[in-house]
Amino acid sequence: GSQQVDRKVDSVCPFCGVGCLITYNVKDEKIVSVDGRDGPANHSRLCVKGRFGFDYAHHPQRLTQPLIRRPGVPKNLDAPRPGDWREAFREATWDEALALAAGKLKDLRDTHGKKALAGFGSAKGSNEEAYLFQKLVRTGFGSNNVDHCTRLCHASSVAALLEGVGSGAVSNQVNDVAHAELIFVIGSNPTANHPVAATWMKNAAKRGAKIVLADPRRTDLSTHAWRTLQFKADTDVAMLNALIHAVIDEGLVDEAFVRDRASNYEALRENVKGYSPEAMAPICGVPAETLREVARAFATAKGAMVLWGMGISQHVHGTDNARCLIALVTVTGQIGKPGSGLHPLRGQNNVQGASDAGLIPMMFPNYQRVDNAGAHAWFEDFWGMPLDDKPGYTVVEIMHKALAPDDDPHKIRGMYIMGENPAMSDPDLNHARHALASLEHLVVQDIFMTETAWLADVVLPASAWPEKTGTVSNTDRMVQLGKRALNPPGEAKPDLWIIQQLAKRIGLPWHYEGEESGVAAVYEEMRQAMHAAIAGITWERLQRESSVTYPCLSAEDPGQPTVFIERFPTATGRVRLVPADIIPANERPDAEYPFVLITGRQLEHWHTGSMTRRTTVLDALEPMATASMNQASLEALGLQPGDVITIQSRRGEVAIHVRRDDGTPTGAVFVPFAYYEAAANLMTNAALDPFGKIPEFKYCAVRIARG
Ligand code: SF4
Questions:
Q1: CA geometry: angle 202, 206, 211, nearest 5 deg
Q2: For ligand 1, is residue 192 a contact (CB within 6 Å)?
Q3: Contact yes or no for 249/279 (Cβ under 8 A)
Q4: Residue 78 confidence class, pLDDT cut points 50, 70, 90
Q5: What are the residue ranges of helices labelled H in 409-459?
Q6: Which of ligand 1's atoms lies nearest the C-alpha of 48?
């Protein structure tokens, strides 16, 4: 940022949940560079996405005009990639597009009942947008059929955490690794997916902390690790129960902690009896002595902290995986103090905040259950509208309900999707795209003609993150303020304005006065709805401080970086331990489909690629889709790096270049899900974890052929 600029505007990085604070440097109404700001999560550092991932906002493919599908043009599933949208859509005025969108959704509701509609909000939008979006669905559509990509991310972790410790958020912040003696990272590739957080882990290792990296893939953090546990994919519960078994077996249980602060310990102890490290070693592929050594180090460390990612959560046993992590920190007393605890690393920049704001089908804002009579009555009074008291459907369930038979009273017929791209991010894409295309009316609000917008009836051009003011909440429970640096291009509008315009036309009596579509007024209403968490974080305070950690209950409260110090927010005040047994993946390799497909992300590209693949520097760094296999797997198939292969599951296939990565386990192939031309989710399995309703993105069976 040394060049002359017209203005500098403070904001938050729009990519991952680390929540780095940034400054946009603007010249001639364009962002020309980004600087890292001294925020509590980043201390001026940025990764390559935060530093260079900004010029998508100026991309010529930005949507600048509302669009309406041309009559008689079918939703084309054979060409899922939008080419020139003019073949399918015509430009319209805002009045026409909003009247059509709201009118059709209202008609479907009035004809078929409140269950006929659903909405997907976005973990890339602000807290204020998430709050208003769920309020629109609950009070305007009339049901709790509202969800977002948290369902694909940490839904299982949150299910286990709410059940076990009474709160779905992290107990300790990432930079607390500075106070840990042992850092247990499992099912996470932080150098690619939470890069600045990974630098704090590496710093901790340099001053002597032991990193234990547990993952079926050996990733970059391994070079900084004291022990790398490259366990076999899908054997998380076997390995974690073996660690708990070893802690008990070697007399390292924190007896006082368990006595005073846990419940159901006897059941856990009984259950792990059959999981000795010696019995589990052949199953998980980690030597028994290594498991015992790690268990000992974890239990005896002054502080041991667990951080995890999608490798834990995206399994049909994702909730069980997280239950085991809760049990591990509880029996060792490694929670409720600095340098310890549970940290599910949040993926999207606002997946924590969007969930907090109620963008989930079973909870009102701040995790008030929709089927709790007290919470239900409170929100009916607060919003002045009758509310449904049954949990709504989740992301994958909504796709199934869109394809339900016509006489199903819960068939979903109309949807409003803001800023999400399920036509790329859902499992089993052929099914998901078919479901989206079969809706009687689909309204999509986004900044590009995404694969999902391509299947819409009305497309509403929205604002990119630098074009609006709002708050986002990072993985550390920090509520952080981003300010508008630019105006949206053409006729594109702020999302908060669009939501309110639709609400008005559906008949909701909303009035949010003030600048930028009343963002401060929306925030204040949300703060009241979430007073038990953020009462002390006023809009004025955010203007002054940029970032405040919750829980924060008063103007004087600095925010609580470590929670559960005295009690857990469960009914009993104690951790509830829940034993877990081995449940195999829904689809195991067999003679026909002998390889395991693992999907995930890479450093340079973000999720479905709609932003980063339209960013000059990031696209230049990683311009095309690649699949990773190790040398042994390549040799077994007679392949060379650079060859084109076809990967095929029972549901779909992609053609893709193969690259060599010896960290990928033998018999497995890793594919990032950011590339439309080789969409990994064509192959993934929609089987769900029964508690979190999260699909099994991390494991399905595929076969691989050359060419
Ligand atoms: Fe942005 Fe995450 Fe990178 Fe920080 S670590 S710059 S929040 S993508």
A1: 55
A2: no
A3: no
A4: confident
A5: 422-425, 429-438
A6: 3
Cβ atoms of residues 469 and 475 within 8 Å: no
Ligand 1 site, residue 19, Cβ cutoff 6 A = yes
pLDDT at residue 82 above 90?
Answer: no
Give Cα 290 distance to the centre of its chain: 32
Of the candidates 627, 557, 571, the residue with the CA atom closest to the CA atom of residue 598: 627
Using CA positions, which residue lies closest to atom 1 of ligand 1? 50
Distance CA 358, CA 362 (A): 9
- For CA atoms 384, 385, 388, 392, give the dihedral sign: negative
pLDDT over 90 (residue 77): no
- Ligand 1 probe mutation, 11, 12, 15, most atoms within 8 A of CB: 15
Report the alpha-carbon distance of residue 691 to residue 362 in Å, rounded. Answer: 12
- In short, whether 346's Cβ falls inside 6 Å of ligand 1 is no
Q: Name the band, by pLDDT with cuts 50, 70 and 90, for residue 3.
A: low
- Residues 177, 201: contact at Cβ < 8 Å? yes
> Hey, which residues does 368 pair with through a beta bridge?
364
- Residue of 11, 18, 617 to mutate, ligand 1, most atoms within 8 A of C-beta: 18
> What is d(CA 37, CA 602) in angstroms, rounded to the nearest whole number?
24
Does ligand 1 lie within 6 Å of residue 49's CB atom?
Answer: yes
Read off the pLDDT of residues 496-509 as tens digits, 9 standing for 90 and up: 999 999 999 999 99
Per-residue confidence band for 42, with pLDDT thresholds at 50, 70 and 90: very high
Predicted-complex ipTM score: 1.00
pLDDT at 81: 77
* Site of tokens 């003019």: 86
Q: Is 642 left (phi over 0), alpha (psi -120 to 50) or beta?
A: left
Is the preceding peptide bond at 405 cis, omega within 30 degrees of 0? no
- Under the banding of pLDDT at 50, 70 and 90, the label for residue 1 is very low
Residue nearest to atom 6 of ligand 1 (CA): 50
Does the pTM of the predicted model rise above 0.90? yes
